[in-house]
Amino acid sequence: MEIELLHRCFSYSLSPDQSARQYAEGKLDELSQTPGFLAACLEIIQYEKDPLVKQATSIYFKNTILKQWPIDSVIDNGEKPVIRERLFVFVTKLDRVLRNQLLPALSTIINHDYPDKWNSLIEEISKWINNPSNDINTLYVAIYAFAEVCRSYRWKNNKERHLTLDPIISAFFPCLLNIGKQLASDPTLQNSYEASEILKLIIKCYKFVTYLDFPEVLQTGQPLIDWITFHVEILQINYNADAQIGWIKSQKWAYHNLYRLFQRYGTKTISSKFDYKDFRVTFKNEVLPQLVNVYIDTLRRWIANEKYLADSSAYYLMLFLEQALLTKSTFGLIDPHFNFLIGEVAFKIFNPKDEDLELYEDEPEEYIHKIFEYLDECTAEDALYSFLFTLVEKNPDYLTPIFQMVVTKFQELNNQEETIEVAKGKEALMKFVSPIAYKLSQPEKNPAFNDVEPFFNNVLVPNFQSKFQFIRARCCNVVSKFDNLDFKSVETIQNLYNGIISNFLVDCSNETLPVQIQAAVAIQTFVVNETFKQSLEPIILPLMEKLMELSNKFDSEVLPAVMQEIVESFPEKLEPFAEQLMEQLCLKLNSLLLSIADATGAGYEDYDDFENSNGDKSSTALGIVSTMITILLYFENSTEIIGKLEAHYSKTIKTIFELKIEDFYAEAAELIENTLFLTRSVSPLMWSLFGDFVNSLLEDDDITLYLEDSLSALKNYLIYGSDVVQKSVEIQQLYMRLIMNVFEMDVESSDIGFSDILHASDLATTFILALSSDCNSEIFTTIIHYSVKGLAQIGNMLQPKKSSPYRISLVDNLVACLVINPLVTLSCLDTQQMEIFFTNWFNTTADLKRVFDIKLSILGYISLLNVDSTLLNNMRLTSLVNNCGINMVKLFLAVPGAIKDLEKRREEFSEKKWTDEVTYNINQVHDEEEGGEFNEEFNGDDEDDDEGEYDDMFQHNNLFNFETEDELQDDPYSNTSLDKINIFTQFQGFIANLQTNDTNKYNSVFSGLNEEDKNGLNSILSNI
Fold first, then answer.
1. How many domains would you assign to the chain?
2. Where in the cell is it found (predicted)?
């Protein structure tokens, strides 16, 4: 590798001359594939004097490692050991900026190579950590590397890892503990970035090894005491708010670790995955009481402004206290501090921060996101909401005292002039109400129930007219939490209506935006109330116009959901304006889609930024599509109006496919599906989209990702547009490409699942039934070949019961071919294939439950038995005629029952009340084993990690296995190719034809029937 050439490339990459930069970038791409490239980069970083060139080289080196190191064939395997050994030492000698740039590269190498390809790493780390002469930079890199080693064990349980991890813990953790104590207690290191980061990494080493499972060597004895004591010592250090971030984060993760030990291993619940009794007893009796005292003391010092407590630390502290609420034995530790926690701590947490109020003034959109939307950020407010929810859920006796406190303090504030401090107090009080609103709405175990409605009128409603806009926004938000409250007074509803609408129907501005968004949420909440709905009726049109105006100003999933609710509640009122509304929705949606496409197309480097900054665009767009579909469904009986609507949203569908916006393929397909279903036809506009639709699926690297979501739309083209399909070779070829893309995959590999075969077969069956007998015979032969092959493979891979749905779907392909073109079908089956087909067909007869499958098989038998007897004899199929007759009659007798079941399912689906569904929140309640009024809590294993970890990610062996019901069921909301076929008259005609023209075959077909089948057959035929 010519270092001089490489150096020039990095220099040119910084040039203001675009052509020079383009040359440099192209040459760097070429050189990066050359052996020695990475080593040459390190040479430049080490000896270059120009800091900009050093940095450019460092970034390129890092990105190359991140992208190419995990791919074995890209970087020369002979070069890899040299690079990793050198990099490990190299980063210790760099300044902080370059070192921090290259540490992610070291992480990637460790994560990929340890332990299999870098088994000497632990020994090297040990030398550095245990060498007292090393400087703090070297120690930092060594512990950083050790943290990556610990991270590699985080998703493994003790059974999988104890042989390798436990010796590492025994060898390293005592040393880590000593280093951590020294760093934390040395005041001269308070301004040291490296020291603070080392302490954070030590805490995270403990986190990584205890997060999923608890190593035995840390569960009991001195290691347990030492590490918990160390965590407490970290918590008790009083850092300043402007301290090095590592010190602050070390406290955050210390709080996290202690909460995790309590929540996962220190509490016995029905859902517990681990039962470490010795630890649990020790923790409960010796550790927990002291920790609660430490935490309460910390909060008292924080309230008195004697100690800084970061919001992220307060989050885990409050979660810890909430965990203690879950059982009777630990609740007593919290109960004595109730007044302090509710009256002082909660007020300080809920009191709006000055920076948030400044955010309202400067960036109202960001204020909405931060204050009113559920983000991934874990804040003290989030934890306090959960704490209050759990408190009143586990012990309803606390509901009334909290409510009375809110009412009393509100009355005190209402008697004062509304200054900013008074307004902030009101904001805090309203935040108290949100997590307990669901309990206040229930009369059971709620002595305060009769006071709730007066609370609305006397306390909340006046805040709709506050001179502070953030109070109005909060008021709208809080009242929306009472969606289950049964209001007794019409006056209350009218007061709510006046307050909400007066804040919604105002001119849009930055000042009013948060208020209007929350007012829209409140409208959505109360539109189900008949009195509120009647009041809304006269202003529906200006209401929808305002919603559209707001949606053009602010991207959120909230507004489309409100619009959809309004459309569903007032369809008649909106009917005259449906086309105008659809046009506006489509214009907004197109704008969002173009923005999403631009951001996605910006490249991999920018994708995270796109996710963070533009995630709301996708949510808003999805909500708009849902509203569009709601409008469309309302006009089921008006094809003329649908045609007008179609003219607008077809452009949106085309945009999705042309710009390859994959995240919206399912929504585009749903619009197509509903259009074809509602009109029972395929318009020229819909046909104009077909090519882009199919090609978008075909051009994706994995067609199976989108096939299921697209299936109904693709089938509807065939069901309602078969006349066009029969005449168009191009359309036939596109369908064959779709089907064969799946059928040609290796079912024995991981490239395809059995569900994919199910979907492709479903499409293939519908496709065949849309053809005419004179279509290209190669289509039939190809489908037949792969269907028979699939039957053979599935028979070898699955148990009969599990394979039934797949066998039925593949047999359906063959039967469909038999129905459309029996001669071609029979002629292309060799002896072995014929046996596979008929064996599977006969064996699946008893498994057929869907009306479609039963009708198809009956039609298949009729088609087969209508083949000339001489030809059947030549094909050695005469012996099957009697079995075909018996199976056909059994299926015919099953038709009335199957139709009845389908009609019943349709009625059930139509009558289903979704409001009756059981919903679950994060605080699911289970009975404690020993009984009593307290319930154990199954709390989701929340992990707020900088790296975005997910608990128990790979714990279930069948995580990625496809599961399906053993029986295929009719979809009550879709049509099929056979719906228009009257199977009774078809069967009656078949019998009459045989009786007249071929009595011998008639006798062969029906001679094997028993008396019960004969009587059943005669009964049905006599009623036709």
1. 1
2. Cytoplasm; Nucleus
Q: d(Cα 31, Cα 8) in Å, to the nearest integer?
A: 12
What is the percent of the chain with per-residue pLDDT over 70, rounded to a whole number? 90
DSSP string for residues in 575-610: GGGHHHHHHHHHHHHHHHHHHHHHHHTT-GGGHHHH
- Distance, CA of 775 to chain centre: 43
Q: Is 667 within 8 Å of 632 (Cβ atoms)?
A: no
Helices (H), 635-776: 639-658, 665-679, 684-699, 704-720, 722-727, 729-743, 754-769
Single out the residue of 718, 713, 978, 759 nearest to residue 852, CA to CA. 978
Query: How far apart (Å, rounded) are the C-alpha atoms in residues 268 and 391?
Result: 19
Say if 96 falls within a structural domain.
no
Residue 210 placed within a domain: no
Contact 754, 806 (CB under 8 A): yes
In sequence order, the 6+-apart residues with CB closer than 8 A to the CB of 626 are 560, 561, 564
| Least reliable range by pLDDT among 703-712, 734-743, 880-889, 947-956 | 947-956
Nearest to 729 by CA among 772, 761, 763, 670: 772
Residue 332 has a pLDDT of 94
Q: Is residue 437 part of a domain?
A: yes
Mention every residue, 6+ apart, whose C-beta is less than 8 A from residue 469.
Answer: 360, 511, 512, 514, 515
Coil, helix or strand at residue 938: strand
377, 308 Cβ separation under 8 angstroms: no
Both tokens of 591, joined, read 């704008």
- The helix/strand/coil state of 309 is coil
Query: Do the Cβ atoms of 237 and 298 come closer than 8 Å?
Result: no
Number of H helices, E strands in the chain: 51, 2
Contact 209, 154 (CB under 8 A): yes
Tell whether omega for the bond before 115 is within 30 degrees of 0, i.e. cis. yes
CATH of the domain at 351: 1.25.10
Q: Write the DSSP string, 399-460.
A: HHHHHHHHHHHHHHHHTS---HHHHHHHHHHHHHHHHHHHHHT--TT-TTHHHHHHHIIIII
99 exposure class (CB count in 10 Å sphere: 0-12, 13-18, 19+): buried
Helix (H) or strand (E) run with residue 942 in it = none
Range of the domain at 392: 328-529
Give the C-alpha distances (Å, rounded to integers) separating 298 from 185, 187, 307, 345. Answer: 19, 21, 7, 11
489 has a pLDDT exceeding 90:
yes
Cα–Cα distance for residue pair 559/578, rounded to 1 Å: 18
Q: What is the mean pLDDT of the chain?
A: 88
Write out the two tokens for 53: 């060139």
Nearest-angstrom CA–CA distance, 343 and 677: 59
Compute, in degrees rounded to 10, the torsion defined by CA atoms 626, 632, 635, 641.
150
**Is residue 493 a contact partner of residue 487, using CB atoms and an 8 Å limit?**
yes
Q: Are strands 923-927 and 935-939 parallel, antiparallel or unpaired?
A: antiparallel
CA pair distance 259, 319, nearest whole angstrom: 7
CA 137-139-145 angle, 5° bins: 105
Helix or strand run (H / E) with residue 872: helix 869-874
How far CA 615 is from CA of 95, 366, 368, 592, 611, in Å, comes to 36, 13, 14, 11, 5
Write the DSSP string, 515-559. Answer: HHHHHHHHHHHHTTSHHHHHHHGGGHHHHHHHHHHHHHH---SHH
Q: Measured between alpha carbons, how far is 646 from 652 in angstroms, rounded to an integer?
A: 10
pLDDT tens, position by position, 899-943: 999 888 877 765 544 333 333 233 333 333 333 333 333 233 333
pLDDT band at 634 (very low <50, low <70, confident <90, very high): confident
Q: How far is CA 533 from CA 496, 500, 527, 576, 630, in A?
A: 12, 13, 5, 19, 19
Decide if 444 is inside a domain.
yes
